[in-house]
Batch of 4 targets.
Target 1
Amino acid sequence: MHAPVLLHEAVDALAIKPDGIYVDGTFGRGGHSRLILSRLGEKGRLISLDRDPDAILSGEKIADERLCIRHSSFSGMSGVLQEKGIAKIDGLLLDLGVSSPQLEQISRGFSFRVAGPLDMRMDTSSGQTAAEWLNFVAENQLEKVIREYGEERYARQIARAIIVARTRQPIVTTLQLAEIVATVVRSRQRQREIMQHPATRTFQAIRIYLNQELEELSLVLPQCVELLNPEGRLVVISFHSLEDRIVKRFMRAEASADDFPRGVPLKEKELQKISQQRLRLIGKAIRPGKNEVIENVRARSAVMRVAERIALSE
């Protein structure tokens, strides 16, 4: 059962207008989308996207004329909206990372706790599997991926262990990879009582690299600002520091007023016209409460940030 993280907080942050147009860039199993629909009026519209074919199948079961669901990465959002004849939207939600069904479905290969094929693709209809990549990647590239995307201090040792192991036999299952990493990295104590599996960061790194997750995020954020109506909201839920860093820096940059010299002989409205500031930060970063983390351990690393499109003065 998939429990959406920060469900009510995220949808509340969108400040839903009953007749507005909204985008759920990561449908998952539809928790956020369903709540958005419940707050829309008859004329409201919701466009939900996902790279995962299973998520699309789940979404197509929702019988609601206000919902349009498309198989697409969120970086393809502008194209999807253009096809629908939509130029502007009133809000956008991005719930990043891996969903519970993806982790729990053995055939997807995201989990290091059960034996399954080493796949790790968000979109199982295209792209290279983790097994295919691992058995041919150069050692220096493998080390770089594990270090940069996993923030793993033992990246060099892990990469060497993987290269050595694959000379004996191809690495094709999740447990094979997890056991190789465990020979190099000890379990880490995290947040007091939580013990982090030795392979956590390596699996994260390979998944992020294969799915180009950070590149996708960097591509979609500028689109969001261009597409949002004045007072439209951008809500992003991140699950690791690499994602959150990109979101935080982008929002802060877009919310920074231009540094005009003192004494510029222009009125406030005139300054606003030539300013490059396009977003206003809404509140501080929000994290799940203690009860949500107890009920859904996946929520423990979530961070939600919200920004609003500034209305330009005429």
Target 2
Amino acid sequence: MFMDKNFLLNTESAKRLYFDFAEKMPICDYHCHLSPKEIFENKAPENISQLWLAGDHYKWRAMRSCGIEEKYCTGNASDREKFLAFAKTLQYCIGNPLYHWAHLELQRYFGIDTPLNAKTAEEIYERANKAIAEGDFRPQSLIANSNVKFVCTTDDPIDDLKYHKLLNERKLPFRVLPSFRPDKALNINADGFIEYINELGKAADIEIGSVADVVDALYRRAEYFAKCGCKISDQAFEYVPYERADNEELNDIFARAMLGEKVSRRDEDKYKTAIMLTLGAKYKMLGWTMEIHIGAMRNNSSVMFEKLGADTGFDSVGDCEIAKPLSRFLNALEMLCALPKTILFNLNDKDNTVLATMLGNFQSAEAESKIQFGPAWWFLDTMDGMTAQLKSLGNLGVLGKFVGMETDSRSFTSYARHEYFRRILCRLLGQWIEEGMYAYDEDIVKEIVEGICYNNAVKYFDF
């Protein structure tokens, strides 16, 4: 049957692992793009289009690939028209995780088992909206009812974290914690860099005139974030930069950038390396985890970037070489006794083996799997992508200590992606058990499955 209770669970062992161990575990969503303001304000959506389509570049990309006009994605078409356009798109998404995510969400949140396509779109739109009108689809309820215990948002160092503070004054069944994302202070050639540095100085209450001042400001903001419960930093690079320079050269690079000059790629790497090495040491001192997302090539369409801005569905996978600079960066931090717990995410699956083997170079007794191979992310967040990541980590590392899935999402119903991941995980482990590749000891297997689903992350992040 279509996506029934045994969806993806193709062996008896897979079913046992999922229903006995994985299904009941809470969720630790340690990386997402949910809005703390929206969580605090706790407003119910008016309809399923507002819940599903607003801000969802995964859906927009698929719709554009079906020749659908932009007005039905980001434009002024009605919510009904946008939903019907997406439903028409979805029927052609065979093999795309969007198809599975959408139907899992329809089943779990709306009680709708009917496949969504152009024929059923009107009916499902009305049924879903009736469920929203009669039920509780407010953000806090969706999070709590999804059995989520920790939500880590993605926040700029200049953020005052007002809504995190307000949320954590309330007795909610989950915690909303900030994550420190200093990308705007790192991206020295980005438009708006000068204005951002001035805003960073105001937030940190210092005047920034040098690279040391940038570091001081970021340190001050990191300490503020730590007081507000932050335990995770997050950085995104097309490749991890590593190019050393002395203070005089760094300050010259910074001064030129603050005058509006676009510096060379090598000078950009020198600046980023200096900032990241000092930030890594700060993260280590604070007991934080450093997440590094590697491999996105962003804003490829200049035309659409001018029209819509960033994060609207015009990013893709890069193919830079990452092994050597990443190794040198981690090694430099380790030599300074300043390497924090680190999660490495790749966006190009050619780098699975690179990351899965990089981990073993820098492990220590400070934490179980101190250096982690992050879950399949963004364009790899597919059945094949997740399976490949799990196999690479299993083949080359210690899968049983993996911190598991995160949503990386802006949607309050995207927690169905954790179910998708757990079913894929149990499918793979069940196959290995049934093929005699791993001895079934219930206590040990239970610990592994429950660990990957939730327990490992809570322990690793010290929540």
Target 3
Amino acid sequence: MTTIIVGAGAGGLACAIRLKQNHPNCDVTILERMPVPGKKILATGNGRCNLSNINAKHSNDVLDFFSTLGLITRTDNEGRIYPYSNQASTVLDLLLNACSKLGVKIITECMVTKIDGNLCLTTDKGIFNADAVVIATGGKAQKALGSDGSGYTLLKSLGHTITDLSPALVQLTSSSKYTHLLKGKRVKCNAAIYLDNKKMISEYGEVLFTDYGLSGIVIMNLSNTVGKNFSASKPKKCHAVLDLIPDMSEEQIIKYLNHFHSLQGILGKDLSDIIEKQAEGDTVKMSKFAKNWKLIITGTKGYDFAQITGGGAKNDEFNGYESRIIKNLYVCGEVLDMQFPCGGYNLNFAWYSAISAADQITNSKGI
């Protein structure tokens, strides 16, 4: 049996290894358009590779897979799982070593331009024929690391539906002068996204003010809603609304202000001065601003800065990870319309969907 995997990223490498673990004699080839495989893996988790999360669905399956490669991990206080070495290169080296030992062929600088219904792949390095094909190309986020959106084009040409795409897990831009003035400052707060003054999503966490707008994990987790809005033909007015003092009510803040006359003891001088200036020194207004600080959002930092892509191949067109349209065509990872929060959840899905696709191929072929 011959399986061709398009993309030598997290999903592609894991899928290839699992296939060879299941059936050592099968022929597995990965076609990768970049000069080297796994480039994006090295950038994950700020170079430490946040490969999963103990709270992620199927994380045990992922860790079991990596244990077969000899990877030892450690978990931080928020459930994020890293290699014990705290080096993403450890994960990539183990994956590539396993591919080499198991006989997986990796062809780099190979662009797949077409796949037909008979699983014949046209590339700039010739024609490849397969019994099974796995699309593991990733999405459109961070093209320089390998994700150029080509997987969507290939799937669409084979009859699959691609939902609207947008940057996700990405920083937000703002026209407010205040984010620039507060550049580098952080605040733990409740953050919400409003579209046309309607609350869409909210989350508690740390917000980082920047010269272009807002960053931080909570902002990244809210960004999918913003990305989808600004990718629409008629975007709605978008605001981030921050409850800067979630532990106190407006009445408690007013009482505090009546005693201390500023919010410096809670928010620090810079942010307190901005709130006071906006409210023109009015105590009631200061309290309202502190609980509902509204900032205009003008968009996201785009695909070059996004960790993942929002949208993707429509999930109900697949039985597990096998296409319902083209027999023996499989997908895994970010190319599907599956998005998760920061913290290792998306990479966990890439690994899990990859090993699951490999198991489906094995079972379907009776090997």
Target 4
Amino acid sequence: MIKSELCELLGIQYPVFQGGMAWIADGKLAAAVSDGGGLGIIAAGNAPGEYVREQIKIARSLTDKPIGVNIMLLSPFADDVAQIVTEEKVEVVTTGAGNPSKYMKAWKEAGIKVIPVIASVAMAKLMTRVGASALIAEGGESGGHVGELTTMVLVPQICDATDLPVIAAGGIADGRGVAASFMLGACGVQMGTRFLSAKECTIHPDYKEKIIKATDLCTMVTGKRLGHPVRSLRTQFARNYSKAEYGGMPDDELEALATGALRIAVQEGDAEKGCFLSGQCAAMVKKEQPAAEIIKEVIESAEQVLLKASKWTD
């Protein structure tokens, strides 16, 4: 069975993280992933602190395994959530959309493992210096906010730049992606899109159906003009936003157009008004499954891929 230093560091069975997807990764999904042997992560997103506290309590009521919280540092509630994860004794914090340095001392004193999501070598070096426990190297194949580098290119460069454990993310949905990540130097993976198909994922049925029926060219990136590119399914909303983005709409109106769009997709499944975040690997998601089954399937498949690869050498 595949194990790595990440398992010992975090007290998890398999080196598999569930991505912190805003308004999607709630306490129920996080608990199911953690109970299945991975690390379930509650997404704080732009939600108020008390929402995050409630989701932590839900997860705690469903599992006694370690859980994480992802903090989106651009959120107006980031300071509140940073304090709440300390009060609730969350085992792991992952961060995105910013530099978590100002919180590091308090989190480390509370015994929290801090694992920032990064998209560049410079950020990897900085997070190593300020005391991160590990790093999530996320390539542009991922859903949501994306960087410029692909997972294939980013992960080995991050591994060369730090002595911390590295978790690969972006475009990983099956055992082949897990095996490839290990070959690139990572010691674990983070999957987001694959867990959209989990039975415990409470997104609108139309959202889940779109993921399961997705094709290879199903996603597109919008938001580059504002400096915050986002990958999502190629829905009518995404097409309309792209036209507005390059059609001269003022920046403030363009930002307003996207406000609340993810929540609409998650809760209402409205393709006209909702932004359906998805990674490029959506076409590899074939069916709805329990989270624990997803984890077991990708790990067992990765073992077979790595075993086959080992036979190619003398």
